[in-house]
Each structure stands twice: as C-alpha cells, then as structure tokens.
Amino acid sequence: MRLDLAEIQGLVANGYGDRPAATYALFEITDPIKASTWLGRVLDRIQFADFLISEREEPPFLKEEPWNLAFTYAGLDRIGLTSEALSGFSNSFREGMAHPHRARQLGDDKDSAPTQWLWGGPNQPQVHGVLCAFAGVGDGSDETDKLLDERLRAQITAANGLNLVILLPAQRSQKRHLRKEHFGFRDGVSNPQIEGLAKKPHADSLKAGEVLLGYANAYDKLGLTPRVRECDDTARRLPEARDNRALRDFGRNGSYLVFRQLEQKVAAFWNYVNDAAKQLDNGKDGVWLASKMVGRWPDGSPVTLFPDRDCPEEVNDLNDFLFSDHEDAHGQRCPIGSHIRRTNPRDTMLPVPQDMALSGDALQPKSRKKRIEQTNVHRIVRRGRTYGPPLHPDLDPAHMLQEDGQTRGLYFLCFNANLRRQFEFVQATWIVNPNFAGLSDDPDPMLAAGRASPFEANDFTLQGCPALRVPNLPRVVETRGGAYFFMPSRSALQFLSELRAPCIERVPSEESSDALELAALHVRKIQKDFERQPAPRHARRGFHAKSHGIVRASVRIDDDLAPSFRRGVFEPGTTYSAWVRFSSGSFTRQSDRKRDVHGLAIKLMGVPDLPRAALFERHTQDFVLIDAPSLMVGNVRQALAFDRAMVRGPLSLLAHLATHLDEALAIGRITSNPRGLLERQYTSVVPFAHGADRAVRYVVRAAPGQATHEAALGDEGLRASLRTQLDHGDFALELCLQTRGLSDLPIEDGRVDWNSEAQRVATITLHPEGFGSEEQEALGERMSFNPWNALEAHRPLGGLNRARRVVYRTVYELRARLNGHKQFEPRAPDEVRKP
Questions:
Q1: Percent of the chain with pLDDT over 70
Q2: CA-wise closest residue to 499 among 7, 40, 88, 30
Q3: Helix or strand run (H / E) with residue 696
C-alpha cells in the first residue's frame, strides 16, 4: 500500500537534518475551545511528508521552519476527542510513561523516578501536547535559535487556550558525518527506513505498519487504531474504517511518539572507563572499553567490523552487517551486552523457550532468518537531538574528565505503532534486563546500570577466552522528563481543530430519514386540511399559520458594532429594507385567548452577494424567532414523535404527553396569551453560525424607552394590539446576538436555554404604512420565511435546523402549488402587488 505522504506529519518520516535548530514546546490546554481555534489556525504551519517525493523545483517544499504537533492521551481528552476514539488507543498510551508500574519496567527509578522529573511527572503541570519546530536554513546562527524560541512562546499563550509547561531547545545538530552525542560517539547511524519512503530499496527497512497506524505491520496485520462514529465526523474529515463503513479512522497515518529527556553525566562516564580499562590490564585504553560498551568506535564504525581500532577511512556509515557473518556470533568482537547489540540484536541468539531451534546454532540459515525477523518486530524509528553545550568542543575523551556545572544530554524521540511491542519491549526486555541474551548480571552499560528492577545489576562482560568482567558500572544517564504522545495525521488534526469549535455539529445516523418523515407528515397534514375546506380553499402554513400582520421595516446595523460581530449582513452602518411578520404557532386559526407560542419573522432585502447556506434565494436573509427561550423537544427524533401524536389528534397528543412529562411541562413554560406582541422577547431558540468561529442565537426585543399600547384581548386581540401600537407611529426593536461564550452550551439540544447576555447589533424600525391592507396581507401570505434562506456566514446549526431545511422548503413548494402561486421572493419594499 502506498503511503499517503500528504497526510503524514513530516517528523515521522524525516529528521529534518537540513534544519539544524530545534525547539520543543510542551504545553497544557487551559481552554479547549480557544485551543481548537488555535489548532485550526496553526495547521498551515505544520510540515507534512509529501515534500519527500516532490521535485526540488516544484512544491510541496520543505518549509523554512517546519512545525509538527502531537498530543498526550490527556491532551486528546482535554481537547474533546470522543470517548469511542480514546478507548481505541493502546493501554500504554492511556496510562502514560509516568505510571508507577511502567516506570519500574523502563528503569525510571531513584534519581530518574517520575516524581523527580522536570516535566511530565506527577508533581509537574500536566503535559497535553508538544509543538516541535525546526529552523536554521543557511548558516544557522544562534540568532535562529532565539527567534525560534520566541515564535513558539508567541504561540503557547492564554489567548490560544494554552499554557507553556517547558520550552526545550535542542543543541544545534552538526553535519551528518560529524553528528555525535555528548559522550562523543557518532549518532544516528543505525536507524531503519519506513517501507514506501525510499525511492530505492533500502537494506534496513520496516513495514509501514510498524511506524504508522492504518498500514500492515510486520505480521501483515492492521494494528489497533482509534476510531470515531460516522455521526461524530459530520465534515467527513477522517477516512472510513476499512472494516466498518459506519466508523471513521482517527489513527490512520498517525504514529506514537516517545519523548524522553535523558541527562548524560559525561565526565563520570569517561573517568570510569579510563579507570576500568587500567584495571583490565590488557593494554587497552578507555576509548577501547567505551567503544566495546557502545558497540561502535567514536567515529561510528562498528567494532564487529573493526574490533581493534576504528575505521581508517571515511566509511563509518557501515551498518549493513550481521554479527554471525563476521565471527561475532558469541560477542567476541561486539560484546553481547553492548548498547547497539541490545537496541538492535540483528541475528544475536536470543533465548526463545517455546522454540529451541531459534536458540540454537547461529550459522543455521533458517534460524538466523527467523531471529532477524523477530528482532525487526521490535524496531523503532529515532528522531532525537542533543541538548546543552558539549563538555569539550571537539568531544575529545581526553578533555572530558571534569564537569563544568552545566546540564547536557539527549532528547530521545522515537516513533512506533505499538508502544508495548516496540519501545517498551526494547527498553524493558533488551536495555534494562540484566539477563539479556543469556547474560546474568549485565544491564545496558550506557542506559541501565544500577536500576532496581528487575534487580540491581552493574556489570559489563567482555566475551572471549578468558571472559572479562567490568564491575560497578555507574549510572551515567538519568531520565529528567518524559511522555507518550500521538502525532495525528493532517485529517485528524483538522478533525481535532473542529471538535470544540462553536459551529461543529453531531449528526445522528437516523436524522436524515427522520427529517424526511417529518416533512411527509406535514405534507399530509396540509393536504388533508386543504381538501376539507369549502371553496375558496387555502393551503395554510405548516408552522405559524395565523398571521397577526406583516409590517414594513428598516434594519440598521449599529455604527459601533464590535469587530467580532462583523460577519455577513452585519456590517456597521448598513441599512436594509425589511418585512416583519407576527404570528401564532398553532396550525389552526384559534382564538388569541388561548395559550400559544408566538412568532416573529424578519426578511432583509438587498443583502450582499456572498456565499449562501442554501441556494433558495440570492438577495434576502431570513430570521425566524418565537417568544420563548427554548423548545419542548431537543432533537429531530423527539420532534417527529411529538408531531406524529399531534397530527393524530388530541387524544393521541395527551397520551404522548402523559409519557413525556418533560415535554408537557415545557409546553406550559413556553406558551402564553399576551395582550400585546411588541413587548415580548423573541429568540431563535436554535443556534446559527456567526462566521466560522462563533455560534449565536438571535434575540429581538423592544428597544429601551419604547412605550407599548395594549388593546383589549379578544379572538383577534393581538392584531388589534399591533394596529393600536402602529397607529402611534414607528416602533423600534433591537436585534441582538446571544453568544454561546466559552461554555459547552449545546448546539444539538433545542430544550436548553442559553441564558447568556444578548448584545444589540441592529435596530429594527417598524413602519405603519400599509399595515393591514389587503395587498400587504396577500404579499405576506406569498412569502416564505425560512432559516436556511441565509448567508453561509449565518448558516443554521443543529439537528432541528437541519430538519427545517427539508421541511420548510417542502411545505413552501406544496403551498405554492395548492394555492396557485409562483414561488416569490421580494426585492424591495415597494414590490407590493395584488395577487
């Protein structure tokens, strides 16, 4: 399977050797909504791996400052990843590196215990993510490092919902053939390639599924991957799960990142090996002994190929070798317990209790091939860098015997698809284990001396005749911080950026069919009522059939409108001609003395020619509101059940309410029989987008200082009260936005009153001219008020709004056909014609 390089973050596939400066900003998410918005903005700064296959003259290019981003399990939970996806991560990732049981296995005890860590431990602020940045094009001066740090600090801020836990600048990496870690040994020689990346076959390559989720691994299987329900990925950002089309694969093209800060005690190491070499009394010096412990000479050449001295020529990239091919099956050249032999045993004979053949003769081809295959299922891909200044500029062992008071070490970063089988196995079973490959008291001499688990061991054995033992190894590497991260794909990052964004919706799988059934229900209701009427018959609106009048209006957007509200039709100082319709919610034209929900609908004309939420009209914008802060149903399925009962008749409705007491109580709260319409406060009840970064509800209320004039309440009392009011001249209302704020007020539940402050954005002035005339009333009957008749900037949100898109349009088209009207949308207020 081909790798989808445009989806894979670049650091997984490439160490950015051309970008010598590196900084890692570890952060905590303090505000998930702000953090989601930040993630959406920072996506274009993230480097993906498609630059690896592009021609040098053509994009995509390696960015001058490539960034990569990864999250801990707690971070993914904090930013809002669904519980279904979180449960799909490995147990190691969920528990974390600092878990006490895991710390013992990894050798993180005593001074390396998580309680002593600088970051990532239980006594430190929780780490939710890491932003990795690389730079240094050209000469890469120290100024590059400072600017890189400053740019990361500018990202990890409270304004972005983040708190900086620690900033970890790495030492500038050198040219590849000179790159060494602080003990003075060539680094990065043995690092496998990911299958599918190399343009030519690579001798040391791993199956893609050993590093990336969603691809076949060394066992030709797909590993465990976190997935989300299809209804939780409404924007279809994530690829389909290969075995279940109802699920979306969050993990594909992502990888687990292991990050450990390892402090190196350089002078302690070289003082020890120099003294130990003298004790061996075999004529060898400390460099020889240290090279045996590492398994390579300082220049990188392997001791298996050059057992007595380093390579005399510039061929120290040699890595394509097997131990048994060079008289080294039993560790006579490269000791069994050396660092490189533990981290990549190659064809080393490892005890396999269940298969004695694999523990037998190293020269048997079948056994050797099987051992190599078993080694390769535990490999990792490293991307680490050093930190701190070198103890000596030339990394000369002869000058690294006195500490200078500064800390230095390695940021160990590696990628793998299975933490338990790969990194943790290598660390616990090969590095920390004193019984590795038949040894008895030998931990990794560089990384694991003096660890308490499984038992304290401090020896290093030089195989031969006779064998030599080097005792009392010091602890020269201590863990100072660590965490497990997951580095998501491009699609997964996009998905995360929208999780807690105000306008992200969650669509139940059954909602589409429910909306169609709801529309069909109202079609049958209107047709049945139409057929029962005596001539001349009139098809009523499915919602708010009784009109109390349609009024000319002008809507002026506030001059001092806040910048955050300037979206779509809301441009400061703009004035729109408009129509405003007042109505009652019942399908039948009942007396105004009865309790009911009352509606206010606004149609703006001459709106900007901007992208539309739906292609119904192009020049108008509708707002549909009621005089209640919430509904009695929360979603489409509940609305369908309620309307089914209502259409069947009063007895059916009573039976429904008897089993849905919450709906019965809500009806009592939201219905009323007011004496006037203009003193009421109207809300859109369901939310709408306000640009890409905000969700709002609309509120209309009387402007301050407006006096209301009530009329006596009768069967048509509300129309009479409206006429009385307009007889006194123009009347001013306020159009307000009720913001969702930074809380988790629901998008999908219409029963919840947001109860947040409503901020005025415009003034609606009602004009009495023509009110009550036959022509104006006929115009109002021909109009449709549809929340989806809107700019994309004001797109309706939530399930009830999504159902309205189907139902309102269906009802409008049915009424136009039954009443013999052409579908009509006014362009200007003087467009009043007799039917």
A1: 92
A2: 40
A3: strand 695-702
Q: 85-108 in b/e burial notation, b at 16+ Cβ within 10 A?
A: bbebbbebbbebbbbeebbbbbbb
Give residue for tokens 């630059």.
Answer: 51
Q: How far apart are CA 603 and CA 607, in angstroms?
A: 10
CB of 571 within 8 A of CB of 562? no
Residue 781, Cβ density class (10 Å: 0-12 exposed, 13-18 middle, ≥19 buried): middle
Measured distance CA(163)–CA(153) in Å, rounded:
10
Half-sphere exposure of 519 (CA within 13 A, CB side): 21
Q: Inter-axis angle of helices 511-532 and 799-819, to 10 degrees?
A: 30
- In the numeric block, the tokens 């650091």 are attached to 11
Other CB atoms closer than 10 Å to residue 646's CB: what's the count? 16
Instruction: Phi first, then psi: give them for residue 305, nearest 5 degrees.
Output: -85, -30
Which segments of the chain have a pLDDT < 50?
138-140, 352-362, 742-743, 830-835
- 625-to-361, 543, 699, 753 alpha-carbon distances in Å: 83, 12, 8, 14
* Angle at CA of residue 684, ends 667 and 650, nearest 5°: 25
Looking at 80-120, list the stretches that DSSP marks H as alpha helix, in order from N- to C-terminal side: 83-86, 91-95, 100-106
Q: Convert 469-486 into a string of H (helix), E (strand) and C (coil).
A: EECCCCCCEEEEEEEEEE
Backbone phi, psi, residue 699, to 5°: -130, 135
The C-alpha atoms of residue 157 and residue 72 are separated, in whole angstroms, by 19
Residue 68 CA, chain-centre distance (Å), reads: 13
Q: 415 - beta bridge partners?
A: 257, 381
Q: What is the pLDDT of residues 763-788, one digit of tens each?
A: 999 999 999 999 899 888 889 999 99
pLDDT digits (tens, 9 = 90+) for 72-131: 999 999 998 988 899 999 999 999 999 999 999 999 999 999 999 999 999 999 999 999
- At residue 54's C-alpha, the angle toward residues 50 and 58, to 5°, is 120
Q: Write a three-state SS string for 231-285.
A: HHCCCCCCCEECCEEEEEECCCCCEEEEEEEEEECHHHHHHHHHHHHHHHCCCCC
pLDDT of residue 830: 46
**What are 436's two structure tokens?**
């590795």
Query: Whole-angstrom Cα distance, residue 407 to residue 384?
Result: 17
For the chain, the farthest-separated pair of C-alpha atoms sits apart, in whole angstroms, at 119
State the helix-helix crossing angle for 636-648 and 511-532, rounded to 10 degrees.
Answer: 20
In angstroms, the CA 812 to CA 526 distance is 11
pLDDT digits (tens, 9 = 90+) for 34-58: 898 899 889 999 999 999 887 666 7
Name the token pair of 133.
Answer: 């940045």
Report which DSSP code applies to 427.
I
Strands (E), 558-687: 575-584, 598-605, 620-626, 682-683
Convert the pLDDT of each residue in 266-316 to its tens digit.
Answer: 999 999 999 999 999 888 999 999 999 999 999 899 999 998 876 666 555
Rounded Cα distance between 384 and 260, Å, is 9
Residues in the chain: 835
∠ Cα 13 15 16 (to 5°) = 110
pLDDT at position 10 is: 96
Find tokens 């009207």 and name the residue. Answer: 821
Q: According to the model, what pLDDT value does residue 55 have?
A: 63
Provide the 3-class DSSP secondary structure of residue 689: strand
pLDDT of residue 393: 87
Cα 665 from chain centre: 39
CB 136 within 8 A of CB 19: yes
What is the predicted pLDDT for the residue at 315? 54
DSSP secondary structure, 592-609, as one string: TTS-B-EEEEEEEES---
For residue 646, the surrounding DSSP H or E stretch is: helix 636-648
Nearest to 76 by CA among 63, 64, 88: 88
DSSP bridge pairs for 580: 551, 602
Express the helix, strand and coil content of the chain in percent, nearest 5 each: 30, 20, 50
